[in-house]
Every structure is written in structure tokens, then in C-alpha cells.
Design brief:
With 248 residues, the chain is an alpha/beta fold. The protein has one domain: NAD(P)-binding Rossmann-like Domain (Rossmann fold), CATH 3.40.50.720. Helix content is 43%, strand content 15%. The chain has helices spanning 14-25, 37-47, 60-70, 94-122, 143-163, 190-199, 208-219; strands at 5-9, 29-34, 50-54, 76-79, 125-130, 168-175, 230-233. Strands 3-2-1-4-5-6-7 form a 7-stranded parallel β-sheet, with helices on both faces. The longest helix is centred in the middle third of the chain and has 29 residues, at 94-122. The termini are far apart.
């Protein structure tokens, strides 16, 4: 049986690292693409059957070179790399707004286009994009991040329409309150942690492993007819608004 290859962007830490570990456990050889070269190398060493690809996902030429170095078409692409700059949208500089969109949306397009064409030529593949509940119900302070993730969910659907006829499935995962990755600093505040935990119907924060398992489900044969969908992994948070408003 031919060894399967998974490419995980932002795979050196946080949610990306959890996804890389889950893919490795599932038998994939994993390519860790990360702008932080040391983090990518450390994760590749940890997994053993992996390769580090130090690369900025917004650099099209660097992405093409990294893909060429693999010498194979990924069976699974997980677009996880992202950044966030907290603050009010109207107070954000145009420069910062553009940078967030470049990483969180344009970077996903660059990888999805390059790998999607490879998968289309082969006639099979899986792409899973990591979005956010902010794509569905944006939170104050998430500004360009929420805008990018909203665009990402729509782009996922477009890619599904284009690539589906060629045997390539495309879906996205929208994490809720995850205790890890970019949210680590947020949940370091005990009061914030308590308030947000109580707001989740399941009464716990999500873990990076929760997200990784959702990704692996979408990449598996168990999800063979799941296509063009956004899977919320949020403990029921998005649908809990009315339950949190007193009736009297």
C-alpha cells in the first residue's frame, strides 16, 4: 500500500501540531509547513516519519518550491496557518488588516490552488480548512480575523464545487473556544476562562485534540460523502444564544 502524505500548514504548534500528531498516528507521512523554522523542525523530529517545510504561506514562490521538494502529491492538505490581531476593526491599520487577510485567506488560497491542481490531476484528495466560529458569529475584537474566516468558509464551498467532480473533497472545521494555540493567552486569565467555560453548553473548553479529531474524521472514509461543509466544533456554543437570555 502506498504511504499517504498529509501536509499541515502552521503545523509546528497549537492546533496545527495536534493535527500533525493525529495524522501521524493515522499512518500518514506528515509535512510540517510553518513560518517558524525551529518549530517545524522540532515537530518533524518528534513525529519521526515527517519532514519540515519552513515556509511563509503567503509567499507563492516559496510554497511552490516547498511542494516540489516533497516529490509527491499530498493526500491530505490541512490549511491551519493563521494569525490574529485583536482590537476594534475601525481602529485597525490598513497594513495590519491586509496582513491578516494575506495569511488567513490568501495563504489558504495559494496552498489550495497549488495542491488542489495536483490532486485534480491525480483524481483524488482531501482538503480541510481551519476556520472559526467567528466566521458564523463574529466576536468584538476579532476584526480582520473574523472577516478572513468568513471568506474562508465561502471559499471552501467554491473549492468543493470546482474540485468535487475530480474526486477531491473539500471541507472546513470551525473551532469554538479552544484552550490552546492562539487562545492560550486569552484563557490564562481565570475570570475569562470561567466565563467562557460556563457559556459553552458542554461546560468545557475545547482542546486542540478535539479539533484534530474532527479534521481526521473529515479526511477519513467515514466522511466519504461529506463535501463542501463547515463542521462546527464548539460544544454547542454557536447555537446557545437564546438559552443565555433570561425570559423574565
Amino acid at each position: 500500500m502506498t504511504e499517504r502524505l498529509a501536509l499541515v500548514t502552521g503545523g509546528g504548534s497549537g492546533i496545527g501540531a495536534a493535527i500533525a500528531r493525529a495524522a501521524s498516528r493515522a499512518g500518514y507521512r506528515v509535512a510540517i509547513m510553518d513560518a517558524q523554522a525551529d518549530a517545524a523542525a522540532a515537530m518533524a523530529r518528534e513525529l519521526g516519519n515527517a519532514v519540515a517545510l519552513p515556509c511563509d504561506v503567503t509567499d507563492e514562490l516559496a510554497v511552490d518550491a516547498a511542494l516540489a521538494s516533497l516529490g509527491a502529491t499530498p493526500d491530505l492538505l490541512v490549511n491551519n496557518a493563521g494569525i490574529v490581531k485583536f482590537g476594534h476593526l475601525v481602529d485597525m491599520s490598513v497594513k495590519d488588516f491586509r496582513r491578516v487577510l494575506e495569511v488567513d485567506l490568501v495563504g489558504v488560497y495559494i496552498l489550495s490552488r497549488a495542491v488542489g491542481l495536483m490532486m485534480r490531476a491525480r483524481g483524488q484528495g482531501n482538503i480541510v480548512n481551519i476556520s472559526s466560529i467567528n466566521a458564523i458569529t463574529p466576536s468584538l475584537g476579532t476584526n480582520a480575523y473574523a472577516a478572513a474566516k468568513g471568506g474562508l468558509v465561502t471559499m471552501t464551498k467554491l473549492l468543493a464545487l470546482e474540485l468535487g467532480p475530480h474526486g477531491v473533497r473539500v471541507n472546513s472545521v470551525s473551532p469554538g473556544f479552544v484552550d490552546g494555540g492562539m487562545s492560550t493567552a486569552v484563557f490564562a486569565n481565570p475570570r475569562t476562562r470561567d466565563i467562557r467555560t460556563k457559556a459553552v453548553p458542554l461546560r468545557r473548553l475545547g482542546s486542540t485534540e478535539d479539533i484534530a479529531q474532527a479534521v481526521m474524521f473529515l479526511a477519513s472514509d467515514a466522511a466519504a460523502y461529506v463535501h463542501g461543509q463547515d463542521l462546527g466544533v464548539d460544544g454547542g456554543l454557536v447555537h446557545s444564544l437564546l438559552s443565555q437570555i433570561p425570559r423574565d
